[in-house]
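Explain this fold:

***
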Amino acid sequence: MTGLTRRRFLWTGLGIAAVGLAGCAPAPARALVLGCGEAGGSYLQFGELLSAVARETGGVEITALATEGSVDNLALLDAGRVDLALSLADSAAAATTRDGLVAIGRVYQNYLQCIVRAGDGPRSLADLPGRTVSLGAAGSGAAATARRVLDAAGLTSATVPPLVVERPFRDAATDLESGRIDALFWSGGVPTPQIADLAARTPIAVLDTTPVLPELLRRYPDAYAATTIPAGVYGAESAVPAIGVANLLLARASLGDDLARRLVDVLIDDAARLVPPGSLGIQFLTPASLIDTLPVPLHPAAERRYRERYG
């Protein structure tokens, strides 16, 4: 079922029902653990906001767990060590779980950012051969996407390929500032506070990664989109083209129907409170985008709740 077909299916039929839970205090639910991401990143920010709002308005206890990111979260979800997981859509598309992988919603857009020093750093992806590049933390979605970008650009098969390392974001930022690495990849919202802090100390630039987008889409249809990092972010004088990747809130298929419904209500009713302060880029958490979780199917109870709420 295509994204367009799914939208038509979910938006037609019942009309606007708005079957809320107002006046019905939800019964206490067991605590859920949500696999997020690294400290200072958008995943953990979002997870902490979701935890606070879900407890207050949805009657759901959520613990936001710091992790290495998407790939790590998917493994933790499959092993039953977390109940919910945040993941880039491309990482989720490549994942398999023994209990079935389902989505609660498409929550926001991540921006793949390739950060360099503005003075002596690379000026394009073509300058990366022979340079030391941090792909991201081992187990992160950023590292998985960055590998795809380098491969699509033909850099991994170059005579002198980039020297790639996998460094946690905080360490990679320190290494970039000190000159130990030449570039770092990061996937998150914009601006990322820690990158903004780095830019306040050391002039940086964001490389345009979109020249590889046609090849990426040929290999991985519908996984990526062209987007733009607004002017002014990290001190840039003009907007920078970037690759966007949808971020999904995921669960195992065995997640209880009542919990799935409550989570949907939180995403709908408290969307404005789930956007990290200072975010400038494209944010999802809109009726049309929440349901568009391809390539991962919606949890059946979440799908029913979206139809009840929106028709």
